Amino acid sequence: MTGDIADAKDILTVGAVDPNRNRAPFSSMGPTADGRMKPDVCAQGFIATVGGQNGKTSIASGTSFASPIMAGMMACLWQTAPHKSNFEIMDAVRLSGSQADNPDSLLGYGIPDFMWAYNWLRKNWPETKKKRKPDASVRTHRLSGGSQSVTGLFSAVMDKERHHRLPLPAF
Prior knowledge:
Shape: globular
Low-confidence stretches: 128-171
Number of strands: 6
Helix content: 10-25%
Oligomer: single chain
Order of helices and strands: EEEEHHHHEE
Structural class: alpha+beta
Strand content: 5-15%
Mean pLDDT: 76
Strand order of the largest sheet: 1-2
């Protein structure tokens, strides 16, 4: 295999952002060697609250902290729709990103809004058999904020400026 592991096809690459939603200086940028968008999405990985070896929380930085936050949130999302494929879950997360309408090589589709992704999956509940890539026509079907919630499933804080939720680690 040549290239960076984050260049692999059919995976979700996670970049890191700081608490103000800015790209962390150590977070890799895209595109891939064959021109695909990377990273796909971002989570807080700079000045992140993490579990320490002594059982206490501490502050650390790295995409190694952004990726588990994203993986945990995606696992929770997939539990709400176990009949969906991994590609459908990844599509929902990408489409819910803070810059899904204009992805770039710094933050990809941006910071996902998992409540939006959950609602989008519910709206598109019937199973689809083929892998579908996100495109502009799908992005126009965004749901309004609404008041639906998944009790106890998502820990999120509202970003007042952009009305997207930022995933928080559950400590």
